[in-house]
Amino acid sequence: xxxxxxxxxxxxxxxGKITPDLYNEIVNRWTTxxxxxxxxxxxxxxxxxxxxxxxxxxxxxxxxxFDDIFAKDLRVSGSVKVTGNVDVSEMEVSxxxxxxxxxxxxxxxxxxxxLEAGGGIISNSVELAGSLKAxxxxxxxxxxxxxxxxxxxxxxxxxxxxxxxDSEVVECSxxxxxxxxxxxxxxxxRCDKVNISRQWRRFRSSSIKIDEIxxxxxxxxxxxxxRIVGEDVMLGGGCDVDYVESxxxxxxxxxxxxxxxxxxxxx
Length: 267
What we know:
The protein has 267 residues and is of the alpha/beta class. The protein is built from two helices and 25 strands.
């Protein structure tokens, strides 16, 4: 009850319009209501603050199961299953982690074990030496020497692959792939610069399948593609391409190009 309401109520009491008992009842009722509201508001503030503050590091060394994880760090050396989402600052997996929902990491994700997410993964950086499976992956930097499988889209600024990559769409500024097997596959690759080379000493016949490449600069080896569109394209040994369109084009004698459209006639 504010001061104005109290003043008017006091005037009614002084003028005999209400009894002292009724006056006291009204004042007590308003005072109790104000206290309840203040207490409820305080409880809500505390609850919201608790939700916004990350808990300490979650360590899973044996078996663990959670609905959701909202923490500072998540470290898994055992086996963990999360039916919902994960939201942490840092994530390290040397064991096995299965996430039913989405994974959001404000810092780095370091995987030497296996991580599987039913939803998407968003992070600042990904270091992969094990296996990662997700519906989508978005990170500024991806460095993988393991097995990276993404059902839909990978988005990044820079990607460095020294293992296996399998994704429907990859969008990035730069990508370097060092292929050592025939199991890699990309549906559509959109980038500024792409460099793909083979580990000649051990895997001279290794290759990667990429249906379509759209880029500015491409230096490729061991690429089996249906269509490549770029500015400056170099096709080295082991490349097998149905169609190339570019401003400049250099083709190795060990590469196969079925149809080409070179905009620079001197190339």
